[in-house]
Design brief:
The structure holds 2 protein chains of 2 kinds.
Chain A: H1 3-20, E1 24-26, H2 27-34, H3 38-48, E2 64-67, E3 70-73, H4 90-104, H5 112-122, E4 139-141, H6 149-160, E5 162-170, E6 175-189, E7 192-199, E8 204-209, E9 213-222, E10 254-259, H7 264-270, E11 276-278, E12 284-289, H8 293-301, E13 307-311, H9 313-326
Antiparallel strand pairs in A: 1-3, 2-3, 5-6, 5-9, 6-7, 7-8, 10-12, 10-13, 11-12
Chain B: H1 6-18, H2 26-32, H3 50-72, E1 76-80, E2 89-93, E3 102-103, H4 106-115, H5 128-141, E4 142-143, E5 158-161, H6 171-184, E6 187-192, E7 201-213, E8 216-223, E9 228-233, E10 237-243, H7 257-261, E11 274-280, E12 295-300, E13 306-312, H8 315-323, E14 329-333, H9 335-351
Parallel strand pairs in B: 3-4
Antiparallel strand pairs in B: 1-2, 6-7, 6-10, 7-8, 8-9, 11-13, 11-14, 12-13
The chains are: A alpha+beta, B alpha+beta.
């Protein structure tokens, strides 16, 4: 979007938002709604004071001012500019559709029909393309939609704030556990959906990857804990990417993983140069922090033979022994 | 002169025209705008000098540019040719300021509030500021929509964050341009370096869609160089620029961006299609839901385990996934896939036997 057009949108939106609020808002509230800092809002207000209308009908300027922590717009002295917000641009409508679709793959899954109605209601408020049609769905975010009954049960329990009993396969321990949990919320991180919940066995917060929840049974009991004020509590220590990195203060152990030449270009795109050592055959060694030996081993295996753990020996042993047991090979 | 930056000038023009019910001439606008659009046409009359004429032309062009910009924002300044009783001139089509209030029922408002959780949560999102403005406009347009409400509802209990797996400094510069080109159906010229390629290629592309998958932005569209649909990893685009006007193409009938966005690594076209049969323990059955690419469940065991068939055109990533599940999944067929899997197991065991090679 042309910067001038965006500037006009924001300036006009200040007037429309203020008018909607009855002409008075706190600086912080207005700034956050428009997406400006306090300073940017102050600058915008002083510029709006220079907007010049038609003086045939009396006062010719926009009468807007900041007084302390309050922004005031005099009634009917916005030169008519704040009666409605400007129409959404095609890009804004596309952005809204992207967000709605992503939400419908998560907590808005039961509201699919309402989501369609919403977009249909907004469509007439979109500035038309040259051919007169609203922009099609052309941008997407990864958000695998809910597919089966388990997911629907989890969604419903989260919405109802209801305790549930889940059976969960932990990839970092390769074990299946059953536990009662009180849901805190749904979280999407880097392509995966998670359930944040309080494990009622251990009494602490845990994050469960949705596609590893093997079964979910709703209990009908209202969960007593409320969601945290800030969603996505960083203390949960989600991995930045495979393999898991430690969220604690102690430095995590570091493995050296060797990647074959055929996957090395892909790997080089994803790791810092300082963590990598190029090899004469085109491969690359990468130093990778980890906090679950089993998770790291599984991740290395996902490269189907194109990755090998160089060190520590304990992870090499883990891979050898587990793989032998899993696929009926003699354990050396 | 009202020229405290183009934003103020253009808003002043809108304010000026909002008060008019009858068309006004450019000269009237020039006079009221105190020189922001140059001197009125009749200054100097027939004797005006070349400098005055140039100033008039520059002002007139500025007015036309502003008119075009406002049209993109949904505010049209139309030119009426006039008639016997009316002078020719410009009139603001003020419909944008007369739209009825948007009425959302509580469930629709909840959808907006759930969607609002994405704002600011997607690294590199090229429509991020568009989303913020869309939400702010809806707040100012709709009754009963309070996006500041934080507590006690499901919208407060979910969040969406997606970081980039690959960062490239030039991405910030052209991802928004690519997104705009996609929305406006505007061709783009790309300089692209494929992962295994030596150098980069220049190509003209009709950008059909843009999506984020596993921390990587992808562009999918018609490549005029290859004369086929192609998928581009955005961080491997070295340079990009729009070319030509809007509405330059249409995506192929039936094009489904979400189908591209859901493609699994084993669906990349690396070899002829092969239908692989997997047996899945119930603990990992959720990893292969029925919507995961071209897969279908052919049998479900009483304990919840499943047998699935998956059409594969890149076998290795699927074998890797099965390997990583520690025997909770098994390759049942075809024989070529079973042999390949066994070979991978032996290869990994051999690579991790004894001391690692230096």
């Amino acid at each position: 979007m042309n910067p001038t057009a965006r500037d006009i949108e924001r300036l006009q939106l200040i007037l429309a938002t203020l008018r909607r609020a009855g002409g008075r808002m706190t600086v912080d509230d207005l700034a956050s709604r428009i997406g400006l800092s306090r300073r940017e809002l102050a600058d915008a207000v002083s510029r709006l004071q220079m907007v010049h209308g038609d003086d045939e009908h009396g006062y010719e300027f926009v009468d807007i001012d900041i007084d302390g922590d309050t922004v005031d717009l005099s009634p009917n002295l916005d030169q008519g500019l704040g009666r409605r917000p400007l129409p959404l641009t095609p890009s804004e409508f596309a952005a809204l559709a992207v967000a709605v679709r992503a939400a419908c793959a998560g907590p808005a899954a039961p509201l699919g029909r309402e989501a369609s109605v919403l977009l249909a209601k907004v469509a007439p408020h979109v500035a038309r393309n040259a051919d007169g049609s609203p922009s099609p769905e052309t941008v997407a975010l990864e958000a695998t939609p809910a597919e089966d009954g388990r997911r629907a049960d989890v969604d419903a329990a989260v919405r109802a704030g209801e305790e549930m009993e889940i059976e969960y396969w932990s990839a970092s321990r390769d074990e299946v556990t059953r536990r009662p949990v009180a849901p805190l919320g749904l979280v999407h991180r880097d392509g995966n959906w998670y359930l944040d919940a309080i494990c009622l066995l251990r009494g602490d917060e845990r994050r469960f990857r949705m596609d590893r929840i093997v079964a979910c049974r709703r209990t009908g009991r209202k969960a007593t804990r409320r969601p945290p004020a800030a969603p996505g509590n960083p203390s949960l220590g989600l991995a930045a990417g495979p393999p898991a990195r430690s969220g604690g203060t102690a430095a995590p152990p570091v493995a050296v993983v060797r990647f074959a030449a055929r996957v090395a270009p892909w790997v080089r795109e994803r790791y810092e140069p300082a963590a990598m050592t190029d090899l004469p055959d085109g491969g690359v060694d990468v130093r990778i922090p980890y906090d679950s030996q089993v998770f790291l081993a599984g991740w290395v295996l996902s490269f189907a033979g194109a990755a090998t753990v160089v060190e520590p020996a304990a992870v090499r042993d883990e891979i050898r022994h587990r793989l032998s047991r899993s696929f009926g090979r003699p354990v050396n | 002169m009202i020229d405290d930056g183009p934003g103020i000038r253009i808003l002043s023009l809108v304010a000026l025209l909002l008060g008019r019910r009858a068309p006004v001439t450019l000269a009237w606008i020039q006079e009221r705008m105190e020189g922001a659009y140059g001197p009125p046409e009749d200054i100097g009359g027939d004797d005006r000098d070349e400098a005055a004429h140039k100033a008039f032309e520059a002002g007139r062009r500025k007015f036309l540019r502003d008119q075009e910009l406002l049209a993109r924002l949904g505010l049209r300044i139309i030119f009426l040719r006039g008639g016997e009783d009316e002078e020719a001139g410009y009139l603001l089509d003020a419909d944008a300021f007369r739209t009825p209030e948007l009425r959302l029922d509580p469930s629709e408002a909840e959808v907006v509030r759930l969607a609002a959780a994405l704002a600011g949560g997607v690294e590199g999102f090229p429509l991020g500021s568009d989303l913020a403005l869309a939400l702010a406009k809806l707040s100012a347009l709709a009754s009963g929509l309070d996006l500041s409400k934080k507590d006690g509802d499901v919208a407060a209990s979910w969040s969406y964050r997606h970081r980039l797996a690959v960062r490239a400094p030039h991405l910030d510069a052209f991802l928004p341009m690519l997104a705009e080109a996609v929305v406006e159906r505007r061709r783009v010229r790309l300089w692209y370096r494929a992962l295994q390629a030596e150098g980069e290629t220049e190509r003209l592309v009709d950008p059909w869609g843009l999506f984020l998958r596993r921390g990587v932005w992808h562009l999918v569209g018609w490549c005029h160089l290859r004369k086929d649909v192609r998928l581009f990893d955005a961080h491997r685009i070295r340079q990009a620029r729009p070319e030509g006007g809007e509405d330059a193409f249409q995506a192929a009938p039936g094009f489904d961006l979400s189908a591209w966005a859901r493609r699994e690594p084993w669906e990349l076209a690396m070899h002829e299609p092969m239908t692989v049969t997997l047996r899945l323990e119930r603990t990992v059955a959720g990893l292969f839901h029925p919507g995961a690419g071209a897969s279908r469940t052919v049998a479900t065991a009483p304990d919840g385990g499943r047998t699935v068939e998956i059409v594969v055109t890149n076998l290795d990533p699927l074998l890797g996934l099965v390997l990583s599940l520690w025997g909770r999944a098994a390759v049942l067929g075809p024989p070529a896939a079973v042999s390949a899997f066994d070979a991978r197991v032996d290869q990994v065991l051999a690579a991790h036997a004894g001391e690692a090679a230096p």
